[in-house]
Structure formats: C-alpha cells, structure tokens
Amino acid sequence: MKQNVVVITGASSGMGKAAAELFATKGWLVFGGARHSENIPTINNIQALHLDVTSEESVENFMNLIWERTDHVDVLINAVGYGEYGPIEEVPLSAIKTEFSTNFFGAIRMTQAILPSMRTNKSGRIINVSSGIGTSYMPTGGYYAASKAALQIWSDTLNIEVQPFGIQSTIVSPGATKTDFISKMFASFERNTHPTSVYTSLMAGVANMSKNYKASATAEDLASVFYRAATALRPKMRYYKSVSDRMNVYIARNHPLIWKCLMSRVTKRMMRVSTDNNEES
Ligand SMILES: NC(=O)c1ccc[n+]([C@@H]2O[C@H](COP(=O)([O-])OP(=O)(O)OC[C@H]3O[C@@H](n4cnc5c(N)ncnc54)[C@H](OP(=O)(O)O)[C@@H]3O)[C@@H](O)[C@H]2O)c1
After folding, report:
1. Ligand 1 centre and the CA of 151: distance in Å?
2. Each residue's pLDDT tens digit in the chain (281 positions)?
3. Ligand 1 centroid vs 181 CA: distance in angstroms?
4. Ligand 1 residue neighbourhood (C-beta within 6 Å)
C-alpha cells in the first residue's frame, strides 16, 4: 500500500509544525515547507524544505524537490499566515500586498502547483487555514480579515470546481491559539502605530484587549483538527476547534447588524478615550 503523503506549508512554527509532527507519527510522509526550514522538525517521516510562498520560483523549486521523492500528494495544508494589523487608512500598501501575497496568493500558488497531480490521481484534499476573523471582523484587523475572507470564498469555489475530480477543499477556522502568531501580530501593531495618528488609542486599545485575552487552544489542538479534516470520509466545509469559535462566526455571518453594533461600540469606546484625552490636554 502507498504511504499517505501530506504537504504542509508553515511547518517551522505553531500549527504547521505541530501538524507535521502529528501526521508523521501517524505514519504519513510529510513534506514541510517554510523560510526557516532549519526550524522544521526532523523526526522520522518529515522532509524539511525551504519554501517562500510569496515567490513563484520558490514554490516551483519546492515542488520539484517533492516530485523527485514521491509521485503523489494526498493532502495539502495551506497553514502559512500572519496578521498585519493597523488602521485601514494607514497601513502601507506595500505591507498590505505582502499580507495578501502570503495569506491568500501563497495558498493559490501552492494549490495551482499541486492540483494537476491530484486531478491525475483522481483524489486529493486541500485544507486552507483561515481564521474566525475572516468572518467576525474587528477594528484594526481589516487587512488580515480581508485576506482570510478572500481565502474562504476562494476555497468554497475551488471545492465545487474540483469535487468532480475526487478532490475536496475545506477551511479550518481557528480562534486565538497559543503560537508565535501573537508576537508577530504585536510587531505589526508597533510597525503601524504612529504617535501623531488619530488612531493611536484605538491601536493601543486593541493591543491591550489582545494582550489580556488568554488563548486556551494550542497548536497541537489545531493539528488534531487538521488531521480530522484530512481523514474524514466526507469533509465538512468548515472546521472549528471550539464552540465559541463557531459561535463568533455564526453571529457575525447570520446577525451582521448585531456584530456591527458590538464592534462599533468597542471601537467608539476606544476612540472616545482618545478624544477625551486630547480634550483634557
Ligand atoms: N495563532 C492564532 O491565534 C491564529 C488564529 C486564527 C488563525 N490563525 C492562522 O493559523 C495559521 C498558522 O498560524 P500559527 O498560529 O501557527 O502562526 P506561526 O506560529 O506564526 O506560524 C506561521 C508559519 O508560517 C510560515 N510563514 C510565514 N510566511 C511565510 C512565507 N512567506 N513562506 C513560507 N512560510 C511562511 C512561518 O515560517 P517561516 O517564518 O519560517 O517562513 C511559520 O512556520 C495562519 O494561517 C494564521 O493566520 C492563527
């Protein structure tokens, strides 16, 4: 019997790394890609390869190395992603382009490179790692949310197009999870906060809110969700780690006015603090 093969992007950290370890211990052959490939675990069954999903050349080299070592890929997990946080008005266009080139176009580059072989084999599964915020948006998270919203509608469209070839595309929608994602998100807060900006207190407020929020999910929890999505006989369109992750998305999607009121109130409260402070000074 052929060994199951999975390609995991973002395997040097967080969920991708935990997934590489989980699939490998379950006996799968894992091809893990990341820019810091030296951080990809090197246990049995894992092949660590350099990959920058923002570069077509890098994706091509990555896939060429994989095709030298296997003739099939059963599952692709597009786990790469990061949050470029900041006010819609002020995040530089170059940073927005890199966000989309990584979170959205990165998944497209990988998928277009692997789909032809999945079609030939008449089977395959593509797991796209989105975020609850792709539906339940929040202030200063607009560009990250937009990249994940795009990923979701793209994945759903892909799913109906490739199902006739025995291939499914599905979304895993994590909520806050203990990984390096959070520190990278705070780095973007620092990059995109300007002392003279009218949004300074909004940025500080969201940063504080995020700091005080204690994520309970771990990378390993999400790796188990990826594994379920990869091995379910009939995969679902959406996978969530917890009921609260599902609830947030449910409210934002099915009760958009309630979500808008909630987020407006949070935003106004943070902005009012700023206006009051300005008036006092
Ligand atoms: N953690 C959360 O709270 C949370 C919540 C919702 C959704 N998510 C989503 O979950 C996914 C996994 O994130 P995580 O929490 O595991 O974050 P993480 O620990 O920061 O891992 C991100 C991974 O992406 C890789 N990566 C970034 N840019 C890349 C590029 N251009 N090319 C190749 N690899 C790249 C990083 O490796 P290198 O730096 O070595 O390239 C790293 O392995 C992401 O899509 C994220 O948006 C996370």
Report:
1. 15
2. 789 999 999 999 999 999 999 999 999 999 999 999 999 999 999 999 999 999 999 999 999 999 999 999 999 999 999 999 999 999 999 999 999 999 999 999 999 999 999 999 999 999 999 999 999 999 999 999 999 999 999 999 999 999 999 999 999 999 999 999 999 999 998 899 888 999 999 999 998 888 877 788 999 999 999 999 999 999 999 999 999 999 999 999 999 999 999 999 999 998 876 555 544 44
3. 6
4. 9-10, 12-16, 34-36, 39, 51-54, 79-82, 102, 129, 131, 174, 176-177, 179-181, 184, 215, 219
At which residue do the structure tokens 């997934």 appear?
19
Q: Are 78 and 15 in contact (CB under 8 A)?
A: no
What is the fold of 5-280? Rossmann fold (3.40.50)
Question: Are 263 and 137 within 8 A, CB to CB?
Answer: yes
Compute the radius of gyration of the chain from its Cα atoms: 20
Q: Check: CB of residue 136 under 8 Å from CB of residue 130.
A: no
| Pocket residue to mutate for ligand 1, from 13, 36, 130, most atoms within 8 A of Cβ | 13
Give the nearest ligand 1 atom to 78 CA: 45
If one counts every other C-beta atom within 10 angstroms of the C-beta of residue 192, the result is: 20
